[in-house]
Specification:
The structure is a single chain. The chain is mainly beta and 408 residues long. Helix content is 6%, strand content 51%. It has two helices and 21 strands. A 16-stranded antiparallel β-barrel has the order 3-4-5-6-7-8-9-11-12-13-14-17-18-19-20-21. Strands 10-15-16 form a three-stranded mixed β-sheet, with no helix packed on it. A hairpin with a 5-residue loop joins strand 19 and strand 20. The longest helix is centred in the first third of the chain and has 21 residues.
Amino acid sequence: MNFKAIAIAAAAAAAATSGQAADLPMDAAPVDYVRINDAYGAGFFVLPGTETAIKIGGRVRVEAKFNNLTEDEKWGNEDNNINFRSRANLRVDTRTQSELGLIRTYADFQFTSDTDKRGNEGVKLDKGYVQIGGFTFGRATSAFDLWTGELATNVFDRHVSDDTAWQASYTHDLGNGLTIAASVEDNSDRQHGVITSVNEQTAGAGTPGDTSDDVYELTIAEDRDDAGNTLPSFVAKVQLTQGWGWVGLSGAVTKVDAVKSSESELGYAVAAGLGFNLDMIAPGDVINFQAAYADGAMAYVGADDTADAVVFNGGSIETNTAWSVAGGYMHNWTSEFASGLEASYLDVESGDKRLMADFNEVVVAGSLEYTPVAGLLFSAGAGWAQKDVDGGDKTDAATLNFRVQRSF
């Protein structure tokens, strides 16, 4: 047998078979490649098989905070003089064009692990809303808020409104950077309660203007009389944003109720803000100012831990009033190094000084920020606060905060 002839014949047969197979029709599935969509900004891509653009991002933040740095502050385990936090945010943003306009969904899932006594441990939906054209439905930044601060490291809250609220709102763009907004918002997170007199607690507090400790301590949470969330808040805002900066005005109307009172009161707040871009000093530099006034709506001036009103001996509701001013400057020394300084002042007037003393509070905070590469931040912050109770004590507080943050 001639093996060479057999091998040549086999090779020829294989070549002929391959040629015939190549001529046969094939049912190959089409490849649906992921497409980039930068019409809404960097990081968006199109979900295969749809016209929906999606962006997945977030950040991881680790920080150490050192409290009780002055003699006025309390010492003890319940105050956790040194505490630590790890927090992760996962954010999903989708955009779809439709005959109704742009449909957007946004979800920000927040995961927090704290030192035991810091009090924010757990998982929550920090923001979650649907936008259809100019309408927003869900949990989003309150339409009342204007400037909320620039510092990357938070040590003490400045006296500004910075809240997320359940809402149904509409924002209309009038062109040339001018927008107006109207919103109906859930008031439950904004309510600070009403202080109601209790006989045994007010036995030594029958004189108007009495600001002794046994009276002032009635401002703590367990002495507040909450009547529930009976009506939402109504909020409106107008804002102009230009190349030079921005200017805005906002207002809110709410309802103040108390279980131990047969009546209710109207609460309201107004705020005005102004900011300038100072690129002539350094690219990215900004300076901002804001002022606010509230009557029966303490959250809107950043008056935390302060009741909205008082009720003495089961009588009528007397609203507390407050005003605040705040400002801040952020300076970029280089493309990697920046520093900021912010300050605020709050003045609170009680509706009935037999139940709550007047007081004022000042906060000063600053930070140093280093961004060696995009998305990576190292920051150090320091803050000082002083509370001056009318006819009572003046106390100081100081804190330090160190943070590492990676955004993606």
